[in-house]
Design brief:
This protein is an alpha/beta fold. Helix content is about 40%, strand content about 15%. The strands form three sheets. A seven-stranded mixed sheet has the order 2-8-7-6-5-3-4, sandwiched between helices. A three-stranded antiparallel sheet has the order 9-10-12. The structure holds pyridoxal-5'-phosphate.
Length: about 375
């Protein structure tokens, strides 16, 4: 077995930070208690959960009681969308989202359509960002909720959350954002951005898989939710099931680390991304997918002219761990729905690469990756003529 490929897929998932693992370990063994138990074991676990909840709440300017732990962002999105639809059944049947959303938003929306709800899937502009005038025009009297992601998982594009929030609040429409890619990477302020519901997950910021949370606004205007899991009444009856204490502790630690290191880490990743982009551009026929400025520091997504997408990925696979679209659609033979929404030609959408740089990406890895990319792309282009 040779060397493992360089990991450049941090938008699919991130490695666990060793400091997060250290924080988690006692809660698998010595402090194994159920936070619902009324004795010392339970109290120790409950105290750890409380601390993590406070860290998460503070990270987005929310109150601790506004945080509902879930198994991840997929479940948080499902609880937000289906929970609101069910809780406000009498009020309206119209929801608005965007064509470039993650499938964990699009699929619950399609499910709600099957139940009789009406969903508008807004297009995006060439740079991947939402047109606010178009959003405004689509709001109806019976619009219940608008769901727009904070940062896109394929092209890293950041949506104008504060403007969307202001518009929704003015019109009395609930605003949900899937912030799975954004937490710890851009400032999130549910108060200043008028966000009513926000989904997050630990494994996109060097925390463990299988733990996430939904922020649900409790202050006025209060947001109602219908639980999607019924049982022991945990999480204010909104999400039953014994809390997964080690994962929750890890989530808290991951968020604390991301916030503490943000000011040095974000510029570092942006500089590495620029280095990669400059190096790629020297090859010619390289097209940036998504906005140049309003994007995650660690994300680069490019279309490569003159090569076949499948050949490119296959040739790179032994050396570089990256993907074309999102990880969830890897087995999907269709080109990325996000790139198609940007108006990209299908062949160029297929011959696109998503680079997800992260906390453990080094300059030496970027230079190695560039060397491999240059060699591979030139060879494939030669074969094609
Ligand atoms: C990863 C991701 C999800 C899914 O999160 P899980 O915690 O894996 O369920 C949802 N939305 C976006 C934007 C993501 O990047």
């Amino acid at each position: 077995m040779g060397q493992r490929p360089i990991y450049l897929d941090n938008q699919a998932t991130t490695p666990l930070d060793p400091r997060v693992l250290t924080a988690m370990l006692p809660y698998f063994q010595k402090n194994f208690g159920n936070p619902g138990s009324q004795h010392r074991y339970g109290w120790e676990a409950a105290a750890a959960v409380k601390q993590a909840r406070e860290i998460l709440a503070a990270a987005i300017q929310a109150q601790p009681e506004e945080i509902i732990f879930t198994s991840g962002a997929t479940e948080a999105n499902n609880l937000a969308l289906k929970g609101v639809a069910e809780a406000y059944l009498g009020r309206g049947k119209h929801l608005v989202t965007v064509q470039t959303e993650h499938s964990a938003v699009l699929e619950p929306c399609r499910y709600l359509e099957s139940l009789g709800f009406e969903v508008t899937y807004l297009p995006v502009q060439d740079n991947g960002s939402l047109d606010l005038a178009q959003l405004q025009a689509t709001l109806q009297k019976d619009t219940l909720l608008v769901s727009v992601m904070a940062a896109n998982n394929e092209i890293g594009v950041l949506q104008p959350l504060a403007e969307i929030g202001r518009l929704c609040r003015q019109r009395g429409v609930l605003f949900h954002t899937d912030a799975a890619q954004a937490l710890g990477k851009i400032p999130l302020d549910v108060e200043q951005m008028s966000i009513d519901l926000l989904s997050i997950t630990a494994h996109k910021l060097y925390g463990p898989k299988g733990i996430g949370a939904l922020y649900r606004r409790q202050r006025s205007p209060h947001v109602s939710l219908a639980p999607q899991l019924h049982g022991g009444g945990q999480e204010q009856g909104l999400r039953a099931g014994t809390l997964f204490v080690p994962q929750i502790v890890g989530f808290g630690q991951a968020v604390a680390l991301a916030l503490a290191e943000q000011s040095t880490e974000i510029p570092r990743q942006r500089a590495l991304r620029e280095r990669l982009w400059q190096g790629l551009q020297s090859l010619g026929g390289i097209y940036l997918n998504g906005d140049t400025e309003a994007r995650l520091a660690g994300n680069l997504n490019v279309g490569i002219a003159g090569v076949k997408g499948t050949s490119l990925l296959l040739a790179l696979q032994p050396y570089l761990a990256l993907s074309s679209g999102s990880a969830c659609s890897a087995s999907n033979p269709r080109p990325s729905h996000v790139l198609m929404a940007l108006g990209r030609e299908e062949s160029l959408a297929r011959a696109s690469l998503r680079f997800g740089l992260g906390r453990f990406t080094t300059e030496a890895e970027i230079d190695q990756a560039l060397e491999i990319l240059q060699k591979t792309i030139l060879a494939l282009r030669q074969d094609n003529v």
